[in-house]
Amino acid sequence: MADTALLVIDAQNVYALPESPLCVPEFGESLGRINRLVEGFEAAGAPVIYVRHVHRADGRDAGRMFDFSGAAEPVGFVEGSAEAAYVPGLKIVPDGLHITKRRYSCFEGTELEAILRSLAVNTVAICGYMTNFCCESTARAAHDKDYFVDFIADATGAPDLGDDYRQPEIIQAVCASLAAGFARVLKAEKYLEAMR
Fold first, then answer.
1. CATH number of the domain encompassing residue 53
2. Which of 25, 77, 120, 144 has the fewest Cβ atoms surrounding its Cβ within 10 A?
3. pTM reported for the whole predicted model
4. Total structural domains within the chain
């Protein structure tokens, strides 16, 4: 496991707050699986890397994040805001590394690749939020950078996209696409069993 790093992506309040438009159904269950993965990696002496999505309040570092359709939206994930903070209950290990990102992919504009190379990592295990944005984007980017990718499906989550596309269908669609050529798709408990 020393050559595998766990990426804990965007375990932030915005996905747990009931009043948030990005609230993830059954957030507590996915967070519990994330924490068990963190504990498993810690016990194995393998790296845990926490990544948070954060922007300046004036949005000058947001690029197309909040006007991708041509119409500007309010900037989210503002630095120092409650929504951008790690969610209470997230297990933070003392030796964990912390990265801030400003795009969906954890690789874009960050030091993640340099850190992975310095740790001699060749596989990334992905968990966190949102399944179909930051987790999927990071999985695809990691594959393009020649990492092996383990996508821990039930340790990710996404808000429903209207009545027709609920979280289970979103996760299923993302995993079907990734499993076809980008990643191994696994469940947390099976993954942890293989680590023991």
1. 3.40.50.850
2. 120
3. 0.97
4. 1
